[in-house]
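Q: Here's a chain of 243 amino acids. Please give me its 3D structure as tokens.
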Amino acid sequence: MNSEPTPAGDSPFRSASEARDSAPQFVLPLVVRIERSAPPARTDALETSARAVLVILGDERSVGEGEWAQAVRDWQDARIRKVVRRARGAEWRRAQELPGITVTGKSAEVRVFPPVPLDGWPKELAKLQVSGTDLDDPEPPVAPGPGEPVLWVNPDLDMSAGKAMAQTGHAAQLAWWELPDAERDAWRAAGFPLAVRTADPARWRALTESGLPLVRDAGFTEIAPGSCTVVADHPALRRTPGA
């Protein structure tokens, strides 16, 4: 199982071709509920999708001999892919009936499912749309709380909410892999608190040079291959000066 910390030069989110590309490819499906009358706030959707990824990674069904463990191993041994689709009304109710976990934020609901083959989506999910996930924040997000893990988004990229949800999920996953077991357990026990914020340009430059987990997108959709999208700033992963 590829659940050990991933060195910065060997990220499964790199654009370069490697052995992962020759393995059977799987995808982690995420479905966000977007009702016409009450769409979720963008930042809350990004935070909720990141927590959903962490929840399924930390679920007992995803490890050891759990019922989802083999699918998770197969997925993590290949290129790490996540696809976010949207659902409303009856579509959302049908998605709720499939094996998975629903994670709820302030206004967002995201259901995450065990990984599936790239071309083997359940029909209830395959028919859902990827487009149409453009969301807004009614009010500017408040500053993150003291000591709260923050997923910092590149201020120079224009990503749809669905794309950004996948990227924050990637960043949360990289942080999960790099954390020591005790810190993982503490984060899980606390309910995976985290914030998603867009960095200002000066902070972004410093973050990309900090040694914190950094997502480089493979470039399958929306943005250029190798683009740096999100940095995971978990307090337990910060490097001390001179270390």
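Q: Can you summarize the key feature?
A: Confidence is low (pLDDT under 50) at residues 1-10.
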